[in-house]
Q: What sequence folds into this?
């Protein structure tokens, strides 16, 4: 059976060797037909602590690594946008 692959944005990189990835999908409402966004957070394994918050990554399903982690990061899709520093005026 093939492994599932999802694409999402990293919302947290605070854990050691762990990133939290927010995956959004769009679904059609059953009654009204409006397209709505549904999101879910996945804890993914990042062996080298190389991915940072704000980056878009692709994650792949794996055997359980810990209580929450059953995904691992396989590649970076886009890099994080540099943070702009607002000057105090």
A:
């Amino acid at each position: 059976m093939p492994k599932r692959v999802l694409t999402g944005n990293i919302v947290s990189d605070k854990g050691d060797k762990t990133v939290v990835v927010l995956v959004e999908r769009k679904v059609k409402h059953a009654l009204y037909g409006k397209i709505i966004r549904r999101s879910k957070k996945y804890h993914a394994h990042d062996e080298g602590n190389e991915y940072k918050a704000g980056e878009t990554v692709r994650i792949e399903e794996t055997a359980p690594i810990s209580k929450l982690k059953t995904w691992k990061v396989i590649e970076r899709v886009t890099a994080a946008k540099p943070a702009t520093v607002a000057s105090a005026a």
Remarks:
- The CA atoms of residues 44 and 71 lie 5 Å apart.
- The radius of gyration is 16 Å.
- DSSP finds no helices and five strands in the chain.
- The first strand starts at residue 5 and ends at 12.
